[in-house]
Amino acid sequence: MALNLDDIKRIAHLARIEVSDNEAQETLNKLSGILGLIEQMQAVDTTGITPMSHSQDVTQRLREDVVTQTNQRELFQSIAPATQDGLYLVPKVIE
Q: Which residues in the chain belong to E strands, given as ranges?
């Protein structure tokens, strides 16, 4: 895909960016280089290569799923201002 100065100026206009002729030429050179690299990467034969989620074969170390704190529900219920049938009672705020 080849770009020209008119394409760069049109893109700049659509993006509401003001570019001078010098900036447009620099942008054209940079975008042409990027598109050239993309074409080179697309030309590489990748048949038989499986996609990978990471460049290195790493796995995340996980800790054991062990309970570290005991159930303190009864303690919290005992210090709550008001409870009924295991539920916390709160004052009515809407009349």
A: 83-84, 87-88
